[in-house]
Request: fold
Amino acid sequence: MSAALATLNGVVVTTCRIQIPAWGLWWAEVECASQEALTGRATLVLDDVTFVGTIVSGGAYETRTRYRIVGGAGGWGREIAPVGYVNDAGVKLATVIRDAAAACGESVGTIATTGIGPAFARHRGPASRVLEALVPRGWYVDEAGVTRVGTRAAVAWTGAATRSLTPWAAECLPGQR
Reply:
């Protein structure tokens, strides 16, 4: 008996569509041939690549289950409270992003201690607004579910699972056809 090509929390996946954008959250739409309900943290294994995320919607439908999964803890869309930062020596980028991540339950990797000025106001709203304001198109959630500040490295797909690029995606990723 061979191992399944794809699993979600150990359950065999029959259909999976995953999007890994140049910046922001990766997401997946997954269908399993099981009526076992899954919630919360999710480990999606596609061939030899493992993605850690959170099930944000889905459940049983007829004889199968379908889910929508986002990278990380699913917190960047949560509303967070406003906070003001003031420091004559300079408010640090890392401080503001780490505080926003802690407020929404996400984890972040290494962040430069770059100063962003003497003051910064974090407004009430989705936590991702902090990232968009400070590092627009300069953040992503990696396969392990960790938020990274910087540019996602372009990597050629070498797995056994089928890879297809929609025409609009090919336009967004030059050289990745």
